[in-house]
Design a protein that fits this description.
The protein is of the alpha+beta class. It has a domain of 37 residues: Erythroid Transcription Factor GATA-1, subunit A (Erythroid Transcription Factor GATA-1, Chain A, 2-Layer Sandwich). The chain has 1 helix and 2 strands; from the N terminus they run ββα. It has a two-stranded antiparallel sheet with strand order 1-2.
Length: 71
């Protein structure tokens, strides 16, 4: 493995928060290891990461209720 350039920066691994080299010499970047990369992929696959949704303001909404015809 080649030495990283002096200007290479380190970042916090998103999984374990250890320092990870953010350079082409790190094949798992931005992760510190293959293990952390695989754990993150598993979290995506099992839908552990979710984007919060706003609650529906109109009551029933478009999820199977009757359409709003009050307009």
């Amino acid at each position: 493995m080649t030495q990283p350039p002096r200007s290479a920066r380190t970042v916090k691994c998103p999984v374990c928060e250890k320092p990870a080299l953010f350079a082409p010499s790190n094949p798992w970047r931005p992760f510190c290891s293959e293990r952390c990369r695989t754990r993150d992929l598993g979290a995506w696959a099992s839908e552990e990461y979710r984007v919060p949704a706003k609650p529906d303001e109109g009551g029933e909404g478009a999820e199977g209720g009757e359409p709003d015809t009050t307009s």
